[in-house]
Amino acid sequence: MKAGTRALGVAESFRGESSTTERSTVAGAVVRADRVVDGLGYRRCTVGGTDATDAVCELIDDLGRPDVRYVLLGAIAPAWFNVLDLSAIERRVQQPVVSVTFEDSEGLEAGLEDAFSGPALEARLDRYRRLPERRPVSVDGETVYVRSVGLEPEDAADVVRAFTPEGGRPEPIRVARQAARAADSYANALLGE
């Protein structure tokens, strides 16, 4: 991959007390394959809500970066089960979308069933069940779990590896997570928390 190829990493941070009325900070970091950070943007989404997909799409629109070739998401259900719709994001931004998670699990269905009921549960389960299959990918001796829309699984694995210079976390996601944490900390400081 060329050194100047850009990916947008997206991650979120929430450091308040757990409540469905709370907001989480969503950060986006444009990072080149050679690790140069080339832009940052922010949005908010509801903890326990269903607006994370819109927040990600609005963040991408706000950045206005047609040079971004890939969107790398650092979670599939940020902000306490605010399940992302990868296909909707891919349609909106017209770029491949890759979700990278870092722990092996049995999936989210049991957690969703414990946390929600009725229409709230059904909406989240429907979105979750429509996600592409999660596949393990070996990166620098570590295993990450990848879902992709707009790329074949092998190509998605190559993108993840190309943007992971060391360890198992792609650089755009790592930078976005740091940016989200810093912004969330700053917002809490402004509120006196």
TrEMBL record:
Top-rank lineage group of the source organism: Archaea
InterPro entries in UniProt: Endo_dU (IPR002802)
Coiled-coil spans in chain: none
Pfam families the UniProt entry points to: Endo_dU
Similarity comment: Belongs to the UPF0215 family.
Stated name of the protein: UPF0215 protein Natoc_2242
Phylogenetic lineage: Archaea, Methanobacteriati, Methanobacteriota, Stenosarchaea group, Halobacteria
